[in-house]
Each structure stands twice: as C-alpha cells, then as structure tokens.
TrEMBL record:
InterPro entries per the UniProt record, alphabetical: CAT-like_dom_sf, Plant_Fungal_Acyltransferase
Keyword Cell cycle: no
Alphabetized UniProt keyword annotations: Transferase
A matching Pfam family: Transferase
Name under which the protein is recorded: Transferase
GO molecular function, a single term: acyltransferase activity, transferring groups other than amino-acyl groups
Lineage, uppermost ranks: Eukaryota, Viridiplantae, Streptophyta, Embryophyta, Tracheophyta
Family classification: Belongs to the plant acyltransferase family.
Length: 459
C-alpha cells in the first residue's frame, strides 16, 4: 500500500556546510557563429531557472577533482554543437521578442566541497531545500563582461566520503526535460570517449520548427491558456505566501498495478476503461492525485463544493505528434499543456476509470492541428497555462539512467520549491517502476488530501 515519508523537517540537514573553492567561466573550445536564436512561443514563456542535482557514490578511479577536470573539458567541446547554451537571453529591440544571442559568452563552472559525507545527507528522495546549496545560482559580476548571468551554471561538490554531486541550473528557454536528458547523455558520452567520437545524438537547434503560422490561426478553444492582463507577464504559476505543509507520497509498482486494476474494474467506456493505451502508470497516478486534490477543499469555506470545477494541467511531448514529427534531438521546449476539467461531484461520485479516461483524453486532444493552434494562440495573446494545479512529471525522464564513466547517479532530482499549484512526480530509488509524489498544501487541505489518498488505496 502507498506510504508517506514521515521524516520530520527538523531532521533534515539545514546546512550542508558548503565551501566554494573556485568559480570560473567555460567557453566553447572553438569559434562559433555569432547569431540570434529564435525562440518559439512555448520557449519564451519559460524564461525562468530550473535546478537539478545528480548525486554519485565514490569511485576510486574518478575522485571528484578528476571528475571536475573531465567535466569542464568536455563542456568546452559540447558548447560548440550547443552554442546557444553559452549565449545570453535578449529582447530583440525591433520586434520586442525574446531570443538568445549566441555570443559565446560562456557558462558558469564552480568547484565546492561539503563538510559532510553523502550518507550524512540522509534520504536523497526527501525534498531538502538545502540541496539548493549544491547549485551555483549566479556568478560574481567581476567574472562577466556585463550584468547578464549565464544560461547555465554547473557546480561539482565533493563530499568527505569521496562521493560528489553535480548541480545544474539552466534557463528553461534552453531545454525541456527530454532535451536536457539528451544533453546529459551527450555529455556522458563525450567524457567517456575523451571527446573524439561523434555525439550519440546531434542536437537540432532549429526553433523555427515551432514558429507560428503566418498569419496565425486559432482553430480550437484553449481553456488551458489565459491571456496576460497587462504588458508585464506573470510567472507561469504564482508563488504563495501561505504556510504550506509538504509530504512525499510513495507509490510502489504494486500500488500502481492495483490502481490499473481499479481503473479496469470501474471503467466507463465500452471496453472497461480503454485498455493499455488509456490505463497507463502516468494516467492512473495522475487520476488519483486529481481526485485527492480536487476533493481536498474545505466544504466549510467553499460554497457549493460539489459544483466547483477542478482543472488539472500536465505536460505533453509534442515531438511525435506533429506532422512531420520533430527530430528526437530537438533541443527546445516541445511540450504543451494538456488539461482535464470536471465538476468535483463527477470526480467524487464517478468511477475511477472515468477519471483516468479524462486524463487520457486531455493528452489525446493534443494533435498536430491542436498544437499548431496553441502555438498560434501564443503569438496572438501572449498567454500562459491556466488551471487549478499542474502535475509536473520527472518520473520517466531517465536522468538516473545516464551512464557516466564513474557510473549512474545514485539519485537525480530537481531542487524543489513547495508550491500548492504544482504537484511533482519523481522516480523512486528502490523501486524502478514506483513513483514519489510531492504535495504541498495548506494544513487543513493536506489532512484531507492524505485521508483521501490513504482511503482510496486501502479500498
């Protein structure tokens, strides 16, 4: 049965005792073309940082100083095919559009050490705000020719046991999750081959492949998007000043199999839930989360709670959905926000299989025509995702499967900020097909969410 990590916050290391030893810039190993890179309407609303940390056990042949040396050397070579990564975000003065100036200004590279061993850090799965210390968030201005910060910083942090962490902070305009995974695969391969072998996948940097049509044409209603109300675009999801509880809900592969059986038994379609293409691990987990989140509102503070409409958002990879399909190695953001919406009464009283179907229908809606319409909508309205909450899945990205010469990561995770409008899925260390669900909610809603979660898995 699904479990909840009850580790109290005070037991987490609040300070990893990090000492920064050196910070520098890494430049492309050879001259690259100076140019402006077009950013798609999907890219340009994602102008914010993404932080990930990758933990590695000690390896006698690859002590942290050697890892840092090889990593820095191969990054120099990789910044040639990934020339945009060494650039800077600019606003085009002629059209006001965000773009990347590919100017070889470099990326940041930091060396650091921790007073602790990796085992001292504790449960790597449990979201620890202190992991932010493993990220080089900004560079000192005396390293830069202007005030512009790099689009990517890398930090190698050694632990007393010989283990180490590699932390990345990248501007989301540079990569989505899938293209960042390919970047890591290419980086690992370049290190293993000493940089003399072609990359496993040559990056496709042509963002014009996702340019809007001329003239733009919106052929579908896009309830998952909202227009800007002024000239200053807000963040994709606003942070809240509320005090939030957070918990990690762990679903084992057995739990997920049970959810699939519940969906089949309680399906609403003619084939008892739609078969394997509908009843996937992601769909059943997301359906369970949606049910618990939608029904966690307090009846005392919500008028007519059964009539309240809940809208779930989640990302869909459009690479294989376009005609023709995008290259697998497309480096930009090739994801759109799918949605499912229903009254809380339907979510509470309807069969679980129907909730799963609604999640599936949201993704099925995203065809080539729908994706082109959404991109054109962004050209006209300059909008952003709009819903009650977003399920952000890092579950199947495969960061933990990247084969470095010193082995696969012991664990890879995003550095998370607790947000009630974002629920995060990330892989489990012990169960390859299991998933961990990070939920942040006000206390009373969290109590209700947890009760619903436990009760549904138990029934």
């Amino acid at each position: 049965m699904g479990t909840i990590c009850e580790e109290p916050k005070p037991s987490l290391l609040q300070d990893l005792k990090i000492s920064i030893e050196n910070v520098s810039l890494v430049f492309p190993s050879q001259k690259t073309e100076r140019k402006s890179m077009f950013l798609s309407n999907i890219d340009k609303v994602l102008n914010f940082p993404v932080e990930t940390v990758h933990f590695f056990a000690a390896h006698k042949e690859f002590p942290p100083p050697l890892v840092a040396e090889k990593l820095k050397s191969r990054l120099e070579k990789l910044l040639v095919p990934y020339d945009f990564l060494a650039g800077r975000v600019r606003t085009n003065p002629e059209n006001g559009r965000l773009e990347i100036e590919c100017n070889a200004a470099g990326i940041g590279f930091a060396l650091a050490s921790s007073h602790y061993t990796l085992d001292d850090v504790g449960n790597l799965v449990y979201p620890n705000p202190a992991f932010g210390q493993l990220i080089c968030k900004s560079l000192d201005s005396n390293l830069l020719e202007s005030d512009d910060q790099p689009l990517c910083n890398v930090q190698v942090t050694s632990f007393r046991c010989g283990g180490f962490a590699i932390g990345f902070i990248t501007n989301h305009v540079t990569f989505d999750g899938l293209s960042f995974k390919i970047f890591l695969d290419n980086l690992a391969a370049a290190i293993a081959a000493d940089g003399n072998t072609p990359l496993p996948l040559t990056p496709c940097n042509d963002r014009l492949l996702l340019a809007s049509r001329s003239p733009p044409r919106v052929d579908f209603p896009h309830f998952e998007l909202a227009k800007f109300h002024d000239s200053n675009p807000p963040p994709v999801f606003d942070a809240t000043s509320e005090d939030l509880d957070f918990k990690v809900f762990r679903l084992t592969s057995s739990d997920i199999a049970d959810l699939k059986e519940k969906a089949k038994a309680a399906g609403s379609s003619g084939d008892g839930g739609g078969g394997a293409r509908i009843i996937t691990g992601f769909n059943v987990v997301t359906a369970l989360i949606w049910r618990c989140k939608a029904l966690s509102w307090h009846k005392e503070t919500t008028p007519n709670p059964q009539d309240r409409v809940s809208t779930l958002l989640y990302a869909v990879n459009i690479r294989p959905r376009l005609v023709p399909p995008l290259p697998v190695s497309y480096t930009g953001n090739a994801v759109l926000t799918a949605y499912a919406t229903a009254k809380c009464e339907e979510i509470e009283e309807g069969p679980f299989g129907r909730i799963v179907e609604m999640v599936w229908e949201g993704a099925r809606r995203v065809t080539d025509e729908y994706a082109r319409s959404a991109i054109d909508w962004g050209e006209i309205y300059q909008g952003f995702p709009n819903g009650e909450f977003l399920v952000s899945s890092w579950w199947k990205l495969g960061f933990e499967e990247v084969e470095y010469p010193w082995g696969r990561p012991r664990y890879s995770c995003p550095v998370v900020f607790h947000r009630k409008d974002i629920i995060l899925l990330f892989p489990d260390i012990q169960d390859k097909n299991g998933v961990n669900v990070l939920v942040s909610l006000p206390r009373q809603q969290m109590i209700k969410f947890e009760t619903l979660f436990r009760n549904y898995l138990a029934c």
